[in-house]
Amino acid sequence: MTIFDDLTAEQDRLEGVLAGLDEAQWTSPSGAEGWTVADVVLHLAQSEEGVTATAAGAGAAIRPADGLSVDESMDRLVRAERTSPEQVFRRWREARRAAVAALRSADPGRPLLWVEAPLKPSTLATTRLAEHWAHGLDIAGPLGLAFPDTERLRHVAWLAHRTLPYALALTGAGEHPVSCALTAPDGTTVWRYGPDDAESTITGPAGAFCRVAAQRLSPAESGLRTTGPYGATALDVLRTYAA
Questions:
Q1: pLDDT category of residue 59 using cuts at 50, 70 and 90
Q2: Statement: residue 164 has pLDDT above 80
Q3: Which of 38, 196, 228, 229 registers the highest number of CB atoms within 10 A of its CB?
Q4: Which of helix, strand or coil describes residue 3?
Q5: How far apart are CA 148 and CA 80, in angstroms?
Q6: Where does the signal peptide begin and end (predicted)?
Q7: Are 44 and 81 in contact (CB under 8 A)?
Q8: Environment class of residue 196 by beta-carbon count within 10 Å: exposed (0-12), middle (13-18) or buried (19+)?
Q9: Which residues contact 66 (CB under 8 A, 6 or more apart)?
Q10: For residues 17 and 118, which has the higher predicted lDDT (pLDDT)?
């Protein structure tokens, strides 16, 4: 299975959830502050359209507006294009299929412009999987719908660990090796990232690690354990943005 296959599977799961929602559920508050379920799906559609555009060489279609953060820019875009749940759902379904097709056919060695940093197609696909998973939590959680962790979280965990040097550097701590030993959703397999001899470590459930990285769970409530001089700091700055 490639990252593109797993991205498709994650989106298929979300489409199955969305297909069963009624009008009231579509317009109910999501876990993303200030957004309804329809708003979240609209944001995903807009982002997927940006993937197709950048893969076609149209430049960085997803960039913050002047004077605004990325989140503020995305909120403005959602508010400008709100429409009926039926239209939003159709737009996302079309956009997500086009985006995956574009990533599959892109030159694997050529970085694509994205937000503030160019990413190779496989890494961009990983960020799209991470975002669809996180927003799936935003949708399913408030509605009380099942959205269990899957083996696909290995991509989210990899992405979060990959960005740790950048995140730590932003704190002024500098770049320091951090290793992670994360228990997969099957409860047995352990996913390992980073050098075995790293002095700083993060251990515990992969689902908790990924939720902290996606800012859906606080480090203090995660149950994750840290050791070494930079373990706790690394957990505090853990994110799923790509750098």
A1: low
A2: yes
A3: 38
A4: helix
A5: 33
A6: none
A7: no
A8: exposed
A9: none
A10: 17
Q: Report residue 91 as tokens.
A: 């737009």
Lookup: tokens for 104: 């599959």
CA dihedral for 7, 182, 205, 208, sign (positive or negative): negative
User: How far apart are the C-alpha atoms of 95 and 172, rounded to whole Å?
Assistant: 39
Q: Which two tokens stand for residue 162?
A: 């990959």
230-242 per-position pLDDT tens digit: 999 999 999 987 5
d(CA 206, CA 182) in angstroms, rounded, equals 5
Length of the chain counted residue by residue: 243
Give the domain ranges of the chain. 3-143, 153-237
Q: What is the mean pLDDT of the chain?
A: 94
What confidence score (pLDDT) does residue 243 get? 44
Whether the Cβ atoms of residue 180 and residue 203 lie closer than 8 Å to each other: yes
Task: Write down the architecture of domain 153-237 according to CATH.
Answer: 2-Layer Sandwich (3.30)
Q: Is the pLDDT of residue 63 over 80?
A: no
- Cα separation of 243 and 201, whole Å? 21
Q: Tell me how far apart the alpha carbons of residues 154 and 166 are, in angstroms, rounded to a whole number.
A: 20
Distance from C-alpha of 112 to C-alpha of 58, rounded to nearest angstrom: 10
pLDDT in tens, 70-109: 888 899 999 999 999 999 999 999 999 999 999 999 999 9
Q: Does domain 3-143 have CATH number 3.40.47.10?
A: no
pLDDT at position 166:
85
